[in-house]
C-alpha cells in the first residue's frame, strides 16, 4: 500500500490552533448572498403537490453548512464585488447536494441527518426517491437558465461521476482488501468533485481566465478531499450531538475509511481488525470494539495529517488568483475545514 508521505509543516500562520475562524466569520463576504440562496432554496422546492413540497421543504430546513454555494459565491467574488448572477448557480449546487443526501438516506436506511428526522424516516423510501428526483430536476432548470452549454455540461458530468462514487462505496462495503488509492478515488467522486465544480463554475459565470478557473477547480478538489477525510475522522471521534447521527455509522454500514485502512496495515491488531471489518455481523454487533481498536492505533492521527496535506495543496492554488481580500477568506476556509470538529 502506497501511503501518502506527510511533511509535518505549519500550513500557514493563521492555521495555528486557536486562530481558526468560525464558519460564520468565513462567510462574512457573502452573508447577504447566502441569505438569498436560502430564500431561493425554499422557492425552488414549491410544488402543487403538498406532500412533495412538504418533504422537499423538510430537506431544505434541515440546514447544513451550505459549503457548495459558499464556494461558488466566494470564487465569483474574487473577480467582482457583485455576484448576483451566481445566485441561481449557487442554489442549483446546493439542490444537487441535497438530492444526493436524500437518496443516500434511503440507501443507508438512515433515520437521522443533522440531528433531524430524515425524509426517508418521515415519508418513506418511495417519497424520498421522488423528492430527490424533484429537487435534482429543479437544479437542472436553474443551471439551464444561464443558456450556457458549458455550465450544464460540467454539472451533468459531475452528477454522473458522483453517482459512480456512491455506487463504488456501496459495492466496497466490508471489503478490507481496498487500499489508500481505492479510498481516495471513492471520496474524490463522493465529495471532492462537487466542491471542485462549485469553485470552477463560480469563476466560469464571472468569465474568469482559464488559468484562474483551473486554479479554483483544483483548490476546490483538494479542499473537498480534506473535507471528506475530516468527516470520516469525525465518525470516530465526535459525539452524536455534534454529528447529528449515531457515532460509528460508517463502521456499522461496512464503509472502510482512511483510519481503518491505516490501522489494518500498521496496527498490531490489524489482522483482527481486518477480520472484524469483513463481517457484517461484527460491524453491527461489535462496532464499539472496532472503533476502540482504530482510535487506539495511529489511524486517526495519520488521517488528520493527510487532511492537512490536502489543505496545504488547496492554499497553494490561491497564488494564481488576484490578490483581493476574498482570497484570504478562501485560505481561511481551507484551515477551518481541515481543523473543524463538526
Structure description:
The protein is an all-alpha fold and 342 residues long. It has one domain (26-330): Farnesyl Diphosphate Synthase, CATH 1.10.600.10. It contains 18 helices and 2 strands. It has helices at 23-26, 31-43, 50-61, 67-77, 87-108, 119-123, 125-144, 149-171, 180-205, 210-237, 240-243, 249-253, 258-266, 270-277, 280-285, 287-296, 299-317, 325-339, and strands at 112-113, 116-117. It has a two-stranded antiparallel sheet with strand order 1-2. Strand 1 (112-113) and strand 2 (116-117) form a beta hairpin. Helix 5 runs antiparallel to helix 7 (125-144) and helix 17 (299-317) packs antiparallel against helix 18 (325-339). The longest helix is centred in the middle third of the chain and has 28 residues, at 210-237. The model is unreliable at 4-21 (pLDDT under 50).
